[in-house]
TrEMBL record:
Residues 1-24 form the signal peptide. The keyword Transcription regulation does not apply. Residues 29-70 form the SURP motif domain. GO terms for biological process: RNA processing. This is Hemicentin-2. It is a single-pass type I membrane protein. The chain crosses the membrane at residues 748-770.
Amino acid sequence: MERIGSTWALSALAVSALFLGITARKPTMIPAKAEFLIQEGDDLIISCRGDGDIQFSFMDTPYHDLHWYYNIKFDENAGLHTFTRPNAVSEDTGWYACAYEGIEIKNDAQTIEHPDENITWIYVYVNSSSPFAQDALYDHSLIQFIGQKTGGSLVIPCRLNSPKKQSVSLRHYSRLNMRLSTQSFQYEPKIGFIKHNVSDSMSGTYLCHTSHRHHYSEASWHFPTMLTYEVLIGDLVEPMPPLIDKDEFRGLEWGQNHTFNCHSEDDVDELLRVEWKVPYTVPRERLRQIHNDEMQAAQLTLFNAQESDRGDYTCTKIKRYVKSSVTIHVEFHDPDVTYINVTASSGNGSFVTVAEKTTAIWNLSIDTYPKAYTVKWIGKDKLPIANSGKYLHTQSGTDNTFKIFHATIADIGVYTLRISTLNDTKDHNLELTVLAQPVVRIVNSVSYHTPGQPATFSCSATGSPLPNITWKYLEYPDFPSKTVSKYASVSEIRYETSRFFSFHILSHSTIRINATGDLTCRSCNVVGCSEAVEPIFVSDANGYFGVMDPGTVVEGDTINLTCGASAYNFTNNIAWEVNNSTEHERLSITNRTTKFTYQSILQISDVKKSDSGEYVCRAVNKDNHNTTAVSYELSVMDARVPSINDESTTNNTEIEIDLINDEHAKVRLTCFADGMPNPEVTWLKDGKPLIKHSEQYAISQNNSELYIKYFRGSADGGNYSCQAKNRVGTIERYMNIIITVEQSNYEIIWISLVCVLSAILAALLIYTTLKVKRAKHLKKEFRRMALSELDQRPSEDSVNDEDELISNNQESPRDRLIGM
């Protein structure tokens, strides 16, 4: 086990070492040295070999246009990437590096450290007549501007283009032209003068110079032996990037000449420079750059563009101490291929989610070939959208902005952009989601409910995402006091969602109302919660103040007209006003008080047609003591004896039920009765009432139908009648049902055949039994006679013979007979 453990440990170490080796790997550079020297005009050639894609880096210094002159080639057979700078000049002196793609290389005039963990470095000297690595363009007025933050490290990049030791000095002048000490600066020949942790007092002019001059043959002409640097230490504000016309980069075709412009809108009196950088794959001979420092602009022309010229084109603005750039990716296309490309220029692209009542914005780039295109914005309803106070579409070249102001959940959905060119049309969808807190309300609610009865309530909620709904009912048994309270149970909850509006939900709840209370419907989603609260009152009258309907009133009835006023809203001062000619001996008024209402009950006995009319009840309001009246219109109907209409199946006829052919016969009888008062209908069989719900019979809720589920025999036949009766009279109709149970001749024949066959089978069984018994009797008698004969045999059969038979395992005749 220890050996196995050691093996695993060694393997793990090997894998770890291999992994570290891979992560720390870097390309091999040729020449494999820390530095080398070439002469001005020679080709600068550096090669790197590795097992992946390799990138090269050279020092990024102001006004250094090396990017116009180099190229990179890859020899697949040798696995070698080669960087070539033809006709090198002294300003090409500096650090060069190669590394695998994806590794960041920092390599500019302010870079001090050159880590070599993943990067291979080399320093190149390009010796020339001028001593400095920076080209002063033979002009003493050239000034390099350097900006640095307070506390950072400052580099005065005064470097020589030869490894030969020369004396280099640095002088510092403040704004007051006072010479300051530079002894604290450290000099590194491959970097320059270095000062760490700088302060704003180190701002000013720095002069770097050598100890001797180099002369041409003409005495009046000499190379500069001094470089000037203006340094600013402090908070540096990055300038606005230069401006380019993005439309110039659209629809670029192969084989054509293309011109790109870049400029700055800064103050023209301020010193700055604008320049282009292009992919190294573009040959210099097909490029032309024109600088216009007065206009702060640079123009780039690309001749005979090729598909391989694609890449990032960068315009940089160098403004004294800081610089800023803008980069655009350029593609060159086959002029015979048209296209419509839609991309997100900012934000969430085509899918936008906003809060309710804010603005939804889509920023899209629409690039087409041919360049000219139109955009039609189409709404969810498939109708075009025009600019208005609600919608706005702006277009500038390829940049398009679409806005929906004050977005609500009604705006949620998919919108369409129909983009058209001369050759093609393409639809692009914009999807909007609006997050909205629920809006909730209780709908179709009745404020007063009968105590002890279940009531159904409905609650509507709208929100995005779709919210949920919960119910609560808080009862106050001692209302109007709310000191004592309890929650009632919700017996049933049902939900409905809309087929047409996906952010609306309707909930129905059933609650048994026993006391006055507060009904709460609460709806929540991820945005928040909302609730609606509605007071619910209990009344054992018709609402908070009303007359309970006595129903149909027929001449001769005795009726009670009950006027009830809610005890929460009214005093006990409640009374009926009777102004018609009703005989007072048939009329009485009584008052009573319940837990919930004050009631006045008007009773009219033996109602007559003349009692029809308006009856008024008045009550005094508890809050303002005003009198409130409610009226009831009494309509007295004529009395009519019951009648049964002709659509009823009880029509005094008879029907026959044949149980032989239809043993599952069922019958439904109807009896539609009318009369005033409404008659009571009773079902009878042979004059005796039927039980309403039994195993054999079912009677409908209003007694208008009788359903006979089955018939067992002739006893279920008879006279089935319905009787309609009110206090005016009685009417009865019947249906006589005859049950047929006689057997047919065919069935009798079959029964006879079955009986005959049964008799034959019984006779055969008896015969077989007797025969078997007789055979057994004969066998027994034969054995008895044989044994008797053996007992009478002569005695010459000796015992020895018998023993011999036994010894030979042979059975004697007697034994065989006995075994029978």
